[in-house]
């Protein structure tokens, strides 16, 4: 028992000591925790700052990598290299077309924004958003094509998408991810709407913009417009209030410094009187319109007879005279007689003639020309879709795989741009022109293969409803008004509906040819009317030659003409001879003053009083074939000399003919007249004579032309503008009424003199046939009359001369009507007998003695 108690007490003491140790240990642990907590507080701050530094350095490193990747991708896309570089270049564009250029630009943008610490969100999210934006944009570009996802199988469709991407004309393979399913599920319109909304959302996410910020930025210009409108309204109200409460005649005068004796008012100066005249004239003009007459309140007092401010009666009389003159000038103001169109005042300009006398050339108002008819912007999408599908099906039936990439509608024809599959020859498409016209039920089609600057073939199909291009819609355009050259003319509209404005100074000469009724005369009228709207007589003068008499005679009397319209073919040759003489005179003046062209000379003439500026001269020949029949040698020589040298002298040729054959449009004329306009012709031979290429035989007539200015690789198809005879008459009558023509008598005398000289030389050559003859001419005639036949070899043997001289003798005898024309290998027939030859010699001897 006592042992048990002892052991029990020992256990209790051991447990108590253990408890004391445990409590002591727990106290020590708590003290350790408190000290640790005190130590970890600054350590956590240091950890956060180091984390931020690490994160920023990591973002900066990512920005550098993104910038490098963006620049490298951009270089791969822009620079076509070789081998592997070239393969990657084609692969990138094949995947997404031109849209993949967004990826390097976006990567550079993300890198720059990250560097500036302005990027909202994580970098990898922005990269994924960029890729998604690219995929949606590729799908949109492919869906809006005229025939998207074209092909018979999935493989063909994917290959077509890849090929289109490499040619930068489609969305590439990436467009098949989103665009193709949307196109199949929702159609073209629905797919476009969905893709546009998706693009908008991803663009907002990528840039970090918000809807509120977008609406605010859209509201800023509206708010600015509203504020400016309010400011203008307040300013206008202040001006109206000032006019209503204007200065009155009861002026408050201080009486502090009143003079003791009467003093007369000072006499007004000449400047004050002129200002009074202007003010009175304005008031008189405004008084004509009672609706606009301002309400004037006059508060006058009786004028005392002897005051310090009485007006001198002489000054009052002068003022009354000035007021009467101002009223008379206001009543006779030319602005009161302005045209109803309202544009005459804006178009009234002055020019100074050669005598430095101020004369007024009033430009004709646009209201004289007929306005374009309404309803020309009709909906033709259905017609274009049907014809486009017919074209593709027709070519497919002949084994030619194509797809439509673009459609351009002009006033007369519509061009369907087709892209053939790889391996298709262009000649195979051009050879199917008649088959295409048959399937489309068209009068004819013209194929342009390839289109300059495009990897496509253009098939031009006539429109079922033709739009008329009026002269007014060309004159009243910004392109014509902003043209700096005074020789700018409006020709018409091209196949895309754009205005075609030509500059004669750059051509510098032009040949217009086509069959009868194709539109040559209307084209010439449009050129002349354009120049009348563009230049004054001091800037441009005309020399018109019209062997047909009835075409250009309406322009007689306008101040731009140097001489009346020349209608006699002999005088026409004289007129061209005067033009050559004038060209040489101008070149001599240029040489004396050390200038190279007319522009430099006119600039020099402005600074020197001893020189007068020269106008540009446009020489218009309406029918070349008649001139070539009357005086072929003289006309051809003059045209060639002018075409070769007249450009720098400011002289330009416009030649028209309805017979584009090689005997009219000779090789020399074609070589020196570089710019051409071809209207509809009957054969490809005539087209080649005009343009050196075919195509004009496919034109439709009625102003449909091929315009080939100098420097253009292929002719441009243009629908010429239409100006009626009534419009021409109205414009010409307006100009004649404003200013009459003053013809140059010296030019007329020079033309008459040259015409007489040419007629004399021509008559001498063909009248008797004995002037400027070969010495052996009589012997040659004796030989052929005795032999009864003539040939060059026969004369060589008989007269013992060379081939060239014998051939000239044969030609002279043919001109005199002694022998017949050339008949191939047969000898020429002798047309006169020996007795007739003796009579011809006797008549010539008598005529010689009489002279």
Automatic annotation (TrEMBL):
Record's GO cellular component terms: membrane
Protein name: DNA translocase FtsK
Organism: Merdimmobilis hominis
UniProt GO MF annotations: ATP binding; DNA binding
Keywords, alphabetical: ATP-binding, DNA-binding, Membrane, Nucleotide-binding, Transmembrane, Transmembrane helix
Basic and acidic residues bias: start-end ranges: 334-352
Keyword Transmembrane helix set for record: yes
Biased composition annotated in UniProt, kind: Basic residues: 7-22
Family: Belongs to the FtsK/SpoIIIE/SftA family.
Domain (FtsK): residue spans on this chain: 497-688
